[in-house]
From TrEMBL:
The gene is trpF. HAMAP family: PRAI. It comes from the Bacteria. The lineage of its organism: Bacteria, Pseudomonadati, Pseudomonadota, Alphaproteobacteria, Acetobacterales. It comes from Acetobacter indonesiensis. Pathway: Amino-acid biosynthesis; L-tryptophan biosynthesis; L-tryptophan from chorismate: step 3/5. It catalyses: N-(5-phospho-beta-D-ribosyl)anthranilate = 1-(2-carboxyphenylamino)-1-deoxy-D-ribulose 5-phosphate. Residues 15-212 form the N-(5'phosphoribosyl) anthranilate isomerase (PRAI) domain. InterPro entries: Aldolase_TIM, PRAI_dom, RibuloseP-bd_barrel, TrpF_fam. Its EC number is 5.3.1.24. GO terms for molecular function: phosphoribosylanthranilate isomerase activity. GO terms for biological process: L-tryptophan biosynthetic process. CDD domains: PRAI. Keywords: Amino-acid biosynthesis, Aromatic amino acid biosynthesis, Isomerase, Tryptophan biosynthesis. Belongs to the TrpF family. This is N-(5'-phosphoribosyl)anthranilate isomerase.
Amino acid sequence: MSSGSLPSQGLQRGVKICGLTEEAGFDACMEYGADWVGFVFFERSPRNITPQQANRLSARHAGGAQRVGLFVHPEDDTLARVLDVVSLDVLQIYASDDRAASIRHRFGLPVWLSKPVASADELPTVCAVDRLLIEPKPPTTATRPGGNAQKLDWSVLHGWKPTFPWMLAGGLSPDNVEQAVKETGAPAVDVSSGVEIQPGIKNPDAIKRFIHNARAPLFHIN
């Protein structure tokens, strides 16, 4: 689907497995029904891959999970070079609201924007793109954005009632994702290091358990 939305309506929680670099992890995402798979195009990430590598992985399965490309403050030329090689369904961006909206207009693809938060008063009230990712702010010593395997304090989401699509990220794992969605009501969840053997190398069994546990406490998505 080109909208970057959930592939079905009703009782369904979206699951994204990010940072795919190798065949076993990618194949497990497809086998166990992930909604999105994420390719990281950011050189400082241990999960960084080239557009050619992403294209080879993507070509292993026609259809299935939507392909998401993750970019950190990308230039238009960078995005264009990647899209010339690998077909992506969604662009996940670390940038300002205005820049994310500009990318959406320029490339005509759904854009998801990261919104790191540390407290309830930092939760967004509007969304200028197709989806927001709510995750913890990185530590001051971090060399890259994102959850950095840190768990968000889920209590900051209590009482937050967004009217736009969003996704919970940061410190999720097969062991805590069920509790996370029960506490936050997240309509979608995103994991990377929580299903890995080592950075960039996924554990197929952990992927299976994460997807199953994320969807265990089903609820109706409006």
